[in-house]
Protein backbone atom coordinates (compact mmCIF):
# COMPACT_ATOMS: atom_id res chain seq x y z
CA UNK A 1 0.00 0.00 0.00
CA UNK A 2 1.18 3.50 -0.80
CA UNK A 3 0.80 6.48 1.45
CA UNK A 4 2.08 9.23 -0.86
CA UNK A 5 -0.70 11.76 -0.49
CA UNK A 6 -0.71 11.26 3.29
CA UNK A 7 3.03 12.03 3.36
CA UNK A 8 2.48 15.18 1.32
CA UNK A 9 -0.38 16.31 3.53
CA UNK A 10 1.75 15.67 6.61
CA UNK A 11 4.58 17.83 5.22
CA UNK A 12 2.08 20.66 4.65
CA UNK A 13 0.57 20.20 8.12
CA UNK A 14 4.00 20.35 9.77
CA UNK A 15 4.46 23.91 8.50
CA UNK A 16 1.45 25.27 10.38
CA UNK A 17 0.67 22.78 13.17
CA UNK A 18 3.33 21.74 15.74
CA UNK A 19 4.49 18.29 14.65
CA UNK A 20 1.72 18.30 12.05
CA UNK A 21 -0.86 16.98 14.53
CA UNK A 22 -3.31 18.22 17.15
CA UNK A 23 -2.54 15.36 19.56
CA UNK A 24 1.01 13.95 19.81
CA UNK A 25 0.45 10.19 19.45
CA UNK A 26 -1.00 10.75 15.96
CA UNK A 27 2.44 11.77 14.69
CA UNK A 28 3.80 8.16 14.62
CA UNK A 29 6.89 9.17 16.61
CA UNK A 30 6.95 5.87 18.52
CA UNK A 31 6.88 3.75 15.37
CA UNK A 32 8.54 5.95 12.75
CA UNK A 33 7.14 6.88 9.35
CA UNK A 34 4.47 9.47 8.67
CA UNK A 35 0.85 9.47 9.80
CA UNK A 36 -2.06 8.47 7.60
CA UNK A 37 -4.56 11.15 6.69
CA UNK A 38 -8.15 9.96 6.83
CA UNK A 39 -10.74 11.04 4.33
CA UNK A 40 -13.74 9.13 5.61
CA UNK A 41 -14.77 6.12 7.63
CA UNK A 42 -17.73 3.77 7.67
CA UNK A 43 -18.40 0.79 9.92
CA UNK A 44 -15.16 -1.10 10.58
CA UNK A 45 -13.14 0.70 7.92
CA UNK A 46 -11.10 3.84 7.42
CA UNK A 47 -10.59 5.27 3.93
CA UNK A 48 -7.43 7.36 3.61
CA UNK A 49 -6.37 10.16 1.28
CA UNK A 50 -4.47 7.69 -0.95
CA UNK A 51 -7.59 5.59 -1.48
CA UNK A 52 -6.53 2.74 0.85
CA UNK A 53 -9.07 0.90 2.96
CA UNK A 54 -7.91 0.02 6.49
CA UNK A 55 -9.56 -2.18 9.11
CA UNK A 56 -9.68 0.10 12.16
CA UNK A 57 -8.80 -1.17 15.64
CA UNK A 58 -8.52 2.29 17.22
CA UNK A 59 -11.89 3.77 16.43
CA UNK A 60 -11.02 7.32 17.35
CA UNK A 61 -9.36 5.96 20.52
CA UNK A 62 -12.58 4.46 21.76
CA UNK A 63 -15.75 6.44 20.99
CA UNK A 64 -16.90 4.53 17.90
CA UNK A 65 -17.98 1.38 19.72
CA UNK A 66 -20.69 0.73 17.10
CA UNK A 67 -18.39 1.46 14.16
CA UNK A 68 -17.80 4.65 12.19
CA UNK A 69 -20.60 6.88 10.91
CA UNK A 70 -23.22 4.93 12.84
CA UNK A 71 -26.44 5.99 11.14
CA UNK A 72 -28.61 7.08 14.13
CA UNK A 73 -25.75 9.23 15.49
CA UNK A 74 -25.09 10.88 12.13
CA UNK A 75 -28.80 11.53 11.61
CA UNK A 76 -29.21 13.01 15.11
CA UNK A 77 -26.34 15.44 14.47
CA UNK A 78 -27.70 16.50 11.07
CA UNK A 79 -31.19 17.05 12.46
CA UNK A 80 -29.95 19.11 15.40
CA UNK A 81 -27.51 21.18 13.34
CA UNK A 82 -30.41 22.57 11.33
CA UNK A 83 -31.94 23.95 14.52
CA UNK A 84 -28.84 25.90 15.57
CA UNK A 85 -25.44 24.67 16.70
CA UNK A 86 -24.95 26.36 20.06
CA UNK A 87 -27.03 28.51 22.41
CA UNK A 88 -25.25 28.79 25.74
CA UNK A 89 -28.68 28.25 27.28
CA UNK A 90 -30.33 25.13 28.72
CA UNK A 91 -31.96 22.62 26.36
CA UNK A 92 -34.31 19.70 27.05
CA UNK A 93 -31.80 17.44 25.33
CA UNK A 94 -29.27 17.90 28.16
CA UNK A 95 -31.78 16.60 30.72
CA UNK A 96 -32.64 13.68 28.44
CA UNK A 97 -29.07 12.43 28.10
CA UNK A 98 -28.33 13.13 31.78
CA UNK A 99 -31.36 11.08 32.86
CA UNK A 100 -30.36 8.20 30.60
CA UNK A 101 -26.77 8.21 31.87
CA UNK A 102 -27.95 8.28 35.48
CA UNK A 103 -30.27 5.35 34.71
CA UNK A 104 -27.55 3.28 33.02
CA UNK A 105 -24.72 3.88 35.49
CA UNK A 106 -25.04 2.54 39.05
CA UNK A 107 -24.49 4.71 42.08
CA UNK A 108 -24.77 8.20 40.53
CA UNK A 109 -27.53 10.77 41.08
CA UNK A 110 -26.36 13.70 39.00
CA UNK A 111 -24.00 14.26 36.09
CA UNK A 112 -22.39 17.34 34.57
CA UNK A 113 -21.30 17.49 30.94
CA UNK A 114 -18.04 19.03 29.74
CA UNK A 115 -16.11 18.91 26.46
CA UNK A 116 -13.40 16.28 26.95
CA UNK A 117 -12.14 13.54 29.22
CA UNK A 118 -9.36 15.88 30.33
CA UNK A 119 -11.90 18.42 31.53
CA UNK A 120 -13.93 15.73 33.28
CA UNK A 121 -10.96 14.46 35.31
CA UNK A 122 -9.65 17.94 36.03
CA UNK A 123 -13.06 19.02 37.32
CA UNK A 124 -13.52 15.80 39.30
CA UNK A 125 -10.39 16.37 41.37
CA UNK A 126 -11.25 20.02 41.97
CA UNK A 127 -14.64 18.87 43.22
CA UNK A 128 -13.01 16.18 45.40
CA UNK A 129 -10.59 18.71 46.88
CA UNK A 130 -13.37 21.21 47.56
CA UNK A 131 -15.61 18.58 49.08
CA UNK A 132 -12.99 16.99 51.35
CA UNK A 133 -11.08 20.23 52.04
CA UNK A 134 -7.82 18.38 51.38
CA UNK A 135 -5.20 19.01 48.68
CA UNK A 136 -3.37 15.85 47.69
CA UNK A 137 -4.40 13.22 45.18
CA UNK A 138 -3.06 9.75 44.45
CA UNK A 139 -2.67 8.61 40.85
CA UNK A 140 -1.18 5.41 39.48
CA UNK A 141 1.90 5.26 37.28
CA UNK A 142 0.87 4.50 33.71
CA UNK A 143 -2.73 5.67 34.19
CA UNK A 144 -3.77 8.57 31.97
CA UNK A 145 -6.33 11.12 33.07
CA UNK A 146 -5.91 13.72 30.35
CA UNK A 147 -3.34 16.45 30.03
CA UNK A 148 -4.16 18.79 32.90
CA UNK A 149 -1.21 19.71 35.12
CA UNK A 150 -2.00 17.53 38.13
CA UNK A 151 -1.98 14.36 36.07
CA UNK A 152 1.15 14.81 33.98
CA UNK A 153 3.17 13.09 36.63
CA UNK A 154 4.47 9.62 35.92
CA UNK A 155 6.70 7.13 37.61
CA UNK A 156 10.21 8.48 37.92
CA UNK A 157 12.62 6.03 39.43
CA UNK A 158 11.34 3.60 42.01
CA UNK A 159 8.89 4.35 44.76
CA UNK A 160 8.85 8.11 45.05
CA UNK A 161 6.57 9.75 47.52
CA UNK A 162 6.47 13.15 45.85
CA UNK A 163 5.85 13.14 42.13
CA UNK A 164 8.28 14.93 39.87
CA UNK A 165 6.87 16.81 36.86
CA UNK A 166 7.51 14.99 33.62
CA UNK A 167 6.40 17.82 31.39
CA UNK A 168 8.03 21.25 31.53
CA UNK A 169 5.34 23.76 32.39
CA UNK A 170 3.98 21.71 35.29
CA UNK A 171 5.12 23.57 38.38
CA UNK A 172 6.79 21.87 41.33
CA UNK A 173 3.97 23.27 43.46
CA UNK A 174 1.40 21.32 41.47
CA UNK A 175 3.52 18.19 41.27
CA UNK A 176 3.96 17.96 45.02
CA UNK A 177 0.23 17.45 45.49
CA UNK A 178 0.14 14.41 43.19
CA UNK A 179 1.32 11.20 44.83
CA UNK A 180 2.26 8.28 42.61
CA UNK A 181 1.28 4.70 43.31
CA UNK A 182 1.81 1.37 41.57
CA UNK A 183 -1.18 -0.12 39.76
CA UNK A 184 -2.45 -3.35 41.26
CA UNK A 185 -0.39 -2.76 44.42
CA UNK A 186 -2.58 -2.10 47.46
CA UNK A 187 0.31 -2.16 49.93
CA UNK A 188 1.91 0.70 48.05
CA UNK A 189 -1.31 2.73 48.30
CA UNK A 190 -1.65 1.93 52.00
CA UNK A 191 1.90 3.20 52.64
CA UNK A 192 1.19 6.44 50.76
CA UNK A 193 -1.94 7.04 52.81
CA UNK A 194 -0.03 6.33 56.01
CA UNK A 195 2.73 8.80 55.03
CA UNK A 196 0.21 11.50 54.13
CA UNK A 197 -2.35 11.10 56.88
CA UNK A 198 -5.42 13.32 56.49
CA UNK A 199 -3.98 15.11 53.45
CA UNK A 200 -5.37 13.03 50.60
CA UNK A 201 -8.58 14.25 48.94
CA UNK A 202 -8.92 11.56 46.31
CA UNK A 203 -7.51 8.47 44.68
CA UNK A 204 -8.08 8.54 40.93
CA UNK A 205 -7.75 5.30 39.01
CA UNK A 206 -8.57 3.79 35.65
CA UNK A 207 -10.56 0.86 37.09
CA UNK A 208 -9.39 -1.12 34.06
CA UNK A 209 -6.19 0.50 32.85
CA UNK A 210 -6.17 1.20 29.14
CA UNK A 211 -3.35 3.64 28.59
CA UNK A 212 -0.40 1.33 29.20
CA UNK A 213 -1.90 -1.40 27.10
CA UNK A 214 -4.95 -2.99 28.62
CA UNK A 215 -4.42 -4.00 32.25
CA UNK A 216 -7.39 -5.39 34.18
CA UNK A 217 -7.41 -4.87 37.94
CA UNK A 218 -6.26 -7.90 39.92
CA UNK A 219 -8.75 -9.54 42.23
CA UNK A 220 -9.25 -7.40 45.32
CA UNK A 221 -7.46 -4.30 44.00
CA UNK A 222 -10.51 -2.09 43.42
CA UNK A 223 -12.29 -3.53 46.45
CA UNK A 224 -9.18 -2.72 48.50
CA UNK A 225 -9.06 0.85 47.19
CA UNK A 226 -12.73 1.25 48.12
CA UNK A 227 -12.05 0.11 51.69
CA UNK A 228 -8.95 2.27 52.08
CA UNK A 229 -10.83 5.32 50.81
CA UNK A 230 -13.82 4.76 53.08
CA UNK A 231 -11.60 4.22 56.12
CA UNK A 232 -9.59 7.37 55.49
CA UNK A 233 -12.18 9.89 54.29
CA UNK A 234 -10.75 9.84 50.77
CA UNK A 235 -12.95 10.02 47.66
CA UNK A 236 -12.47 7.22 45.14
CA UNK A 237 -12.59 8.51 41.56
CA UNK A 238 -13.06 5.99 38.75
CA UNK A 239 -11.80 7.46 35.50
CA UNK A 240 -14.12 5.60 33.16
CA UNK A 241 -13.40 7.84 30.17
CA UNK A 242 -12.30 4.72 28.28
CA UNK A 243 -14.32 2.02 30.03
CA UNK A 244 -17.63 3.83 30.62
CA UNK A 245 -20.47 2.55 28.38
CA UNK A 246 -17.89 0.14 26.92
CA UNK A 247 -17.19 -2.69 29.36
CA UNK A 248 -20.83 -2.71 30.50
CA UNK A 249 -23.75 -0.31 30.24
CA UNK A 250 -22.81 0.85 33.73
CA UNK A 251 -19.05 0.65 33.22
CA UNK A 252 -16.59 -1.00 35.60
CA UNK A 253 -18.68 -0.09 38.65
CA UNK A 254 -21.29 -2.50 37.29
CA UNK A 255 -18.76 -5.08 36.09
CA UNK A 256 -16.94 -5.53 39.40
CA UNK A 257 -19.65 -4.28 41.77
CA UNK A 258 -17.43 -1.68 43.39
CA UNK A 259 -18.84 1.82 43.93
CA UNK A 260 -16.76 4.89 43.20
CA UNK A 261 -17.51 8.29 44.73
CA UNK A 262 -17.00 10.23 41.50
CA UNK A 263 -16.98 8.77 37.97
CA UNK A 264 -15.49 10.44 34.87
CA UNK A 265 -16.69 9.83 31.34
CA UNK A 266 -15.63 10.72 27.81
CA UNK A 267 -15.18 8.92 24.49
CA UNK A 268 -18.30 6.68 24.02
CA UNK A 269 -20.57 9.10 25.90
CA UNK A 270 -20.09 11.66 23.11
CA UNK A 271 -20.71 9.29 20.21
CA UNK A 272 -17.64 10.75 18.46
CA UNK A 273 -18.24 14.41 19.29
CA UNK A 274 -16.19 16.27 21.91
CA UNK A 275 -17.88 15.32 25.20
CA UNK A 276 -16.81 14.48 28.71
CA UNK A 277 -18.80 14.22 31.92
CA UNK A 278 -18.41 13.60 35.62
CA UNK A 279 -20.98 12.21 37.98
CA UNK A 280 -21.49 11.35 41.64
CA UNK A 281 -24.10 11.04 44.34
CA UNK A 282 -26.18 14.12 45.06
CA UNK A 283 -24.29 15.26 48.16
CA UNK A 284 -21.05 15.56 46.17
CA UNK A 285 -22.50 16.98 42.94
CA UNK A 286 -24.41 19.66 44.87
CA UNK A 287 -21.03 21.02 45.90
CA UNK A 288 -20.66 22.38 42.36
CA UNK A 289 -21.59 25.92 41.28
CA UNK A 290 -24.27 27.26 41.12
CA UNK A 291 -25.46 25.17 44.11
CA UNK A 292 -22.14 24.92 45.86
CA UNK A 293 -18.79 26.68 46.12
CA UNK A 294 -16.69 24.65 43.63
CA UNK A 295 -16.56 26.54 40.34
CA UNK A 296 -16.76 24.76 36.99
CA UNK A 297 -18.17 26.06 33.70
CA UNK A 298 -18.06 25.84 29.90
CA UNK A 299 -19.30 27.98 26.99
CA UNK A 300 -19.90 24.92 24.83
CA UNK A 301 -20.69 22.42 27.60
CA UNK A 302 -23.88 20.51 26.80
CA UNK A 303 -23.60 21.58 23.18
CA UNK A 304 -26.71 20.40 21.27
CA UNK A 305 -24.82 18.57 18.50
CA UNK A 306 -22.62 16.79 21.02
CA UNK A 307 -25.57 15.90 23.26
CA UNK A 308 -27.58 14.62 20.27
CA UNK A 309 -24.70 12.35 19.21
CA UNK A 310 -24.15 11.12 22.76
CA UNK A 311 -27.83 10.50 23.35
CA UNK A 312 -28.21 8.49 20.13
CA UNK A 313 -25.17 6.42 21.13
CA UNK A 314 -26.34 5.74 24.70
CA UNK A 315 -29.84 4.89 23.50
CA UNK A 316 -28.43 2.30 21.11
CA UNK A 317 -26.35 0.73 23.91
CA UNK A 318 -29.25 0.87 26.37
CA UNK A 319 -31.62 -0.84 23.91
CA UNK A 320 -29.28 -3.69 23.05
CA UNK A 321 -27.35 -4.74 26.15
CA UNK A 322 -26.24 -7.96 24.40
CA UNK A 323 -23.72 -5.85 22.53
CA UNK A 324 -21.27 -6.08 25.45
CA UNK A 325 -21.25 -9.90 25.34
CA UNK A 326 -21.03 -9.83 21.55
CA UNK A 327 -17.98 -7.58 21.71
CA UNK A 328 -16.31 -9.71 24.40
CA UNK A 329 -16.80 -12.81 22.23
CA UNK A 330 -15.16 -11.11 19.26
CA UNK A 331 -12.26 -9.99 21.44
CA UNK A 332 -11.75 -13.52 22.80
CA UNK A 333 -11.84 -14.93 19.26
CA UNK A 334 -9.27 -12.41 18.06
CA UNK A 335 -7.02 -12.96 21.09
CA UNK A 336 -7.08 -16.75 20.63
CA UNK A 337 -6.29 -16.40 16.92
CA UNK A 338 -3.41 -13.99 17.51
CA UNK A 339 -1.99 -16.23 20.24
CA UNK A 340 -2.18 -19.24 17.91
CA UNK A 341 -0.21 -17.62 15.07
CA UNK A 342 2.33 -15.86 17.30
CA UNK A 343 3.06 -19.16 19.05
CA UNK A 344 3.36 -20.96 15.73
CA UNK A 345 5.92 -18.37 14.66
CA UNK A 346 7.81 -18.55 17.98
CA UNK A 347 7.18 -14.94 18.93
CA UNK A 348 7.34 -14.05 22.64
CA UNK A 349 4.15 -12.30 23.71
CA UNK A 350 1.50 -11.60 26.33
CA UNK A 351 -2.07 -10.71 25.39
CA UNK A 352 -4.33 -8.88 27.85
CA UNK A 353 -8.06 -8.62 27.23
CA UNK A 354 -11.25 -7.60 28.95
CA UNK A 355 -14.58 -6.98 27.24
CA UNK A 356 -13.90 -5.09 24.01
CA UNK A 357 -10.35 -4.08 24.98
CA UNK A 358 -7.22 -5.97 23.97
CA UNK A 359 -3.48 -5.34 23.93
CA UNK A 360 -0.59 -7.39 22.57
CA UNK A 361 2.74 -7.07 24.41
CA UNK A 362 5.98 -8.45 23.06
CA UNK A 363 7.21 -9.84 26.35
CA UNK A 364 6.55 -13.18 28.03
CA UNK A 365 5.92 -11.89 31.55
CA UNK A 366 2.43 -10.97 32.78
CA UNK A 367 1.74 -7.27 32.20
CA UNK A 368 0.15 -5.97 35.42
CA UNK A 369 1.47 -2.42 35.85
CA UNK A 370 3.50 0.31 34.16
CA UNK A 371 6.84 -1.36 34.90
CA UNK A 372 5.87 -4.65 33.29
CA UNK A 373 4.14 -2.86 30.39
CA UNK A 374 7.35 -0.95 29.69
CA UNK A 375 9.31 -4.18 29.22
CA UNK A 376 7.75 -4.98 25.84
CA UNK A 377 10.11 -5.14 22.85
CA UNK A 378 9.48 -1.89 20.95
CA UNK A 379 11.56 -2.93 17.91
CA UNK A 380 9.25 -5.92 17.39
CA UNK A 381 6.24 -3.67 17.92
CA UNK A 382 7.43 -1.29 15.18
CA UNK A 383 7.74 -4.16 12.69
CA UNK A 384 4.34 -5.44 13.80
CA UNK A 385 2.72 -2.01 13.37
CA UNK A 386 4.18 -1.27 9.91
CA UNK A 387 3.64 -4.85 8.75
CA UNK A 388 -0.05 -4.63 9.65
CA UNK A 389 -0.35 -1.22 8.02
CA UNK A 390 0.91 -2.74 4.77
CA UNK A 391 -1.76 -5.42 5.16
CA UNK A 392 -4.44 -2.72 5.48
CA UNK A 393 -4.89 -2.96 9.25
CA UNK A 394 -4.64 0.06 11.52
CA UNK A 395 -3.64 -0.45 15.15
CA UNK A 396 -2.46 2.35 17.44
CA UNK A 397 0.98 3.73 16.57
CA UNK A 398 2.31 3.00 20.07
CA UNK A 399 2.93 -0.15 22.07
CA UNK A 400 1.18 1.39 25.09
CA UNK A 401 -2.25 1.57 23.54
CA UNK A 402 -5.29 -0.64 23.77
CA UNK A 403 -7.09 -1.83 20.64
CA UNK A 404 -10.87 -1.40 20.58
CA UNK A 405 -13.22 -4.00 19.16
CA UNK A 406 -16.40 -2.59 17.63
CA UNK A 407 -19.77 -4.00 16.74
CA UNK A 408 -19.03 -3.24 13.09
CA UNK A 409 -16.09 -5.69 12.87
CA UNK A 410 -17.09 -8.97 11.26
CA UNK A 411 -15.58 -12.39 11.89
CA UNK A 412 -14.19 -12.14 8.34
CA UNK A 413 -12.36 -8.97 9.39
CA UNK A 414 -11.03 -10.79 12.46
CA UNK A 415 -9.91 -13.80 10.40
CA UNK A 416 -8.20 -11.52 7.89
CA UNK A 417 -6.42 -9.79 10.78
CA UNK A 418 -5.24 -13.09 12.29
CA UNK A 419 -3.95 -14.29 8.90
CA UNK A 420 -2.19 -10.95 8.38
CA UNK A 421 -0.53 -11.24 11.80
CA UNK A 422 0.62 -14.73 10.81
CA UNK A 423 2.27 -13.32 7.67
CA UNK A 424 3.76 -10.31 9.45
CA UNK A 425 5.15 -12.28 12.41
CA UNK A 426 7.07 -14.55 10.02
CA UNK A 427 9.16 -11.48 9.11
CA UNK A 428 10.23 -10.59 12.70
C1 LIG B 1 -8.75 9.42 26.73
C2 LIG B 1 -8.69 9.45 28.19
C3 LIG B 1 -8.71 10.65 28.93
C4 LIG B 1 -8.65 12.00 28.26
O1 LIG B 1 -9.76 12.26 27.48
P1 LIG B 1 -9.65 13.42 26.35
O2 LIG B 1 -11.02 13.48 25.78
O3 LIG B 1 -8.60 12.96 25.40
O4 LIG B 1 -9.25 14.67 27.04
C5 LIG B 1 -8.78 10.58 30.30
N1 LIG B 1 -8.80 9.41 30.93
C6 LIG B 1 -8.76 8.23 30.27
C7 LIG B 1 -8.81 6.95 31.03
C8 LIG B 1 -8.69 8.21 28.88
O5 LIG B 1 -8.60 7.04 28.25
Automatic annotation (TrEMBL):
Q: Name one GO molecular function term.
A: glutamate-1-semialdehyde 2,1-aminomutase activity
Q: How does it assemble?
A: Homodimer.
The main place the protein resides is cytoplasm
Q: What is the scientific name of the source organism?
A: Flavobacterium turcicum
**Residue list for modification N6-(pyridoxal phosphate)lysine:** 267
Q: What is this protein called?
A: Glutamate-1-semialdehyde 2,1-aminomutase
What is the similarity comment for this entry? Belongs to the class-III pyridoxal-phosphate-dependent aminotransferase family. HemL subfamily.
Statement: the UniProt record of this protein carries the keyword Cytoplasm: yes
Amino acid sequence: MLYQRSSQLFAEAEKVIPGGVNSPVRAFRAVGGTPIFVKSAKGAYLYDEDGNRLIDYINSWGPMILGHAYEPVVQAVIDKAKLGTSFGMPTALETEIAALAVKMVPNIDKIRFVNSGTEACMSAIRLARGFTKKDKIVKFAGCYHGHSDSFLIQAGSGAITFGSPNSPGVTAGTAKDTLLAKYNDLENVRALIEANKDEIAAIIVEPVAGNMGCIPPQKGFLEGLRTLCTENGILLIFDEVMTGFRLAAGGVQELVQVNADIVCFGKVIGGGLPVGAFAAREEIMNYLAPLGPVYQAGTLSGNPLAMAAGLAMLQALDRDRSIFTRLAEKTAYLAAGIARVLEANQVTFTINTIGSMISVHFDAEPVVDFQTAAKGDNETFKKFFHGLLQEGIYIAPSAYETWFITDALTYEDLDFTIEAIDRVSKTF
